Amino acid sequence: MSAKTAYDIIKGPVITEKSTTDRMEDNKYSFIVDKRANKVQIKEAVEELFKTKVLSVNTLKIQSKPKRMGRFEGRSPVKKKAVVKLAQGERIKLMEGP
Fold first, then answer.
1. Which one is predicted more confidently, 5 or 2?
2. What is the pTM of this model?
3. d(CA 21, CA 36)
4. CA–CA distance from 10 to each of 38, 71, 72, 78 (Å)?
5. Taking the domains of the chain in order of start, what are their residue ranges?
6. What CATH fold (topology level) applies to the domain 6-90?
7. Banded model confidence at residue 2, pLDDT cuts 50, 70, 90
């Protein structure tokens, strides 16, 4: 993998009911990340972007699903999701409510 910036690795947050519960109870944040990024690169990117201390990174691959739009059939793209556990007392202010 060539030199990627933190913005190239972290694509965006995952905001679902489960990710919100994980964030509030276990201090875990979910992100969609680059498919080729490894756990070390994801950890460094989160620490650089949000100025926090990351304890662990778990990754999973989201398989594509069949999609239709009228008579046209296709598949959704394959994505990679990372669940990042932050140190006690650390927060990502952008993902917190007002």
1. 5
2. 0.87
3. 28
4. 11, 34, 31, 15
5. 6-90
6. Alpha-Beta Plaits (3.30.70)
7. low
CA-only gyration radius of the chain, Å: 15
How far is it, in rounded angstroms, from Cα 78 to Cα 63? 5
CA pair distance 3, 71, nearest whole angstrom = 41
Query: pLDDT digit string (tens) for 41-71?
Result: 999 999 999 999 999 999 999 999 999 999 9
Alpha-carbon distance of 62 to 73, in angstroms, equals: 19
Distance CA 48, CA 46 (A): 5
Q: CB-based burial of residue 37 (10 Å sphere; 0-12 exposed, 13-18 middle, 19+ buried)? A: buried
